[in-house]
Structures are given as structure tokens and as C-alpha cells.
Amino acid sequence: MSTKKFLYVNRKAPYGTIYALESLEVVLIGAAFEQDVSLAFLDDGVYQLAKGQSTEEVGMKNFSPTYRALGDYDVNKIYVEQESLDARGLTLDDLQPLTYEDEDDDWAEKDSIKVVSTAEMAEIMEQSDVVMSF
Amino acid sequence: MSQLHTVNKSPLDRNALESAIQHATKGNAVLMIEDGVYGAMQGTQKSAIVSDAIGDISFYVMGPDLKARGIDEARIIDGIKVVDYSGFVELVAKHDATQSWL
Fold this sequence. Notes:
Chain A is of the alpha/beta class. Chain A has helices at residues 19-30, 82-87, 118-126; strands at 5-10, 36-41, 78-81, 99-102, 108-111, 113-116, 130-133. Chain B is α/β, with parallel strands linked by helices.
């Protein structure tokens, strides 16, 4: 089977709708198929990666720690759109760090998140074989 | 009539907050809940819509929804009051009617 480039596009805030959690579950399931997987976070989707989420008082599952498992599933191309952060008064420091261990570099720990411009995000979308939108 | 307007959508995704503020009259209250709490943050593209209306309208935001989303109360627009679930109930009881901006 040839490898395809999968892109999961995340544009919704967490908790208000089920999209964010569904996307994360699909990504983790899909990771078992050893495809070339990238994740895109833009528009309200950037809120999914906010650090310090604490859902005790709203009685919902806090699924934000699960993003940190993505690196162990070889999902380490996580693109966050700069313009979407700017519009929301956020910077990379407001997001939880996501890392992976690079097997080609003596398992050095590296950042999975890459902040890209809208133009760069458009190019990433253009280069993808399969796009899943959430 | 004193109305309470609740908003549960992100202002960067939908215009519910903007429309609620436009249709709220002097003395009304706006309560941001669920994804609506993103409207309470400083420094967003939509913050001015709220800060310009503070004074004529009272603004409230649900603390538990802020916490769920990782929003520190220090980053809330000045003049917005943080409430909990019992505060929500009190607001509903205090106003003559509640209108939900979905």
C-alpha cells in the first residue's frame, strides 16, 4: 500500500461542540495505519491546544493531555496558524508544548508544533492527498 | 423590562455576541457561557465590541467555562464579572426575562 499524506484540519474550539474530541480520536485510530499524518489548527481550532485546561467544574472530560500522546504515535507534524493565534490574542506560549522523540536523531526530543502563516497553511493543504475536516 | 442575554458561541466563529450586544438595551446584562467565554478575553479581534459596551450593559462570564478552556481570569476584559453556577441562577432570577443567543 502506498503512503498517502493525510491532513486533519481542526477549526473548532474544544468542549462547545464534539468536533475537537472526535478529530483527536480519529487521528489516534488513523495513526495505527502508518500513513503520513499532519494536523492543522486554525481559526477557533487553536483553542484546542491551550495550556491549563481544567474541566472539573463543568463535568466534562479534559482531553487536552491526550494531544501529548500524539508524538508516541508518530504524529509530529502539528501546524498552528499564526494569523489565527493573533486574532485571538494568543501566542505560542499560551499553547501546551507537544514533543516527539526523533528516531533519526538519537531519539532527541523535538517540538511537534510549528507555527505557520495562512499562506504556508494553504500550501500544506494543497500538498495533502486526503483532507479530513473537523 | 430588564433582560439577561446569554451567549454560548465564540465571537471569532459566530456573530452571536455582537448581535446580542447590538440588541441589548441600557441596563441589560450579557452572560457569556460555554464557547461564549472566549468573548471575555482581552486582546482579541473582538474585544473592543465588549469593552465599548461596558457601562451601558453589565457583562458576566462563567468561571467554570473559563477554567475548562484554560483562560486565566487575569486575561479577562476589565469590568466583566466572573460568576459560578449559582451566580447564573441569581442573574436569571434577577432579570424579567432571559434571551439565549445561540
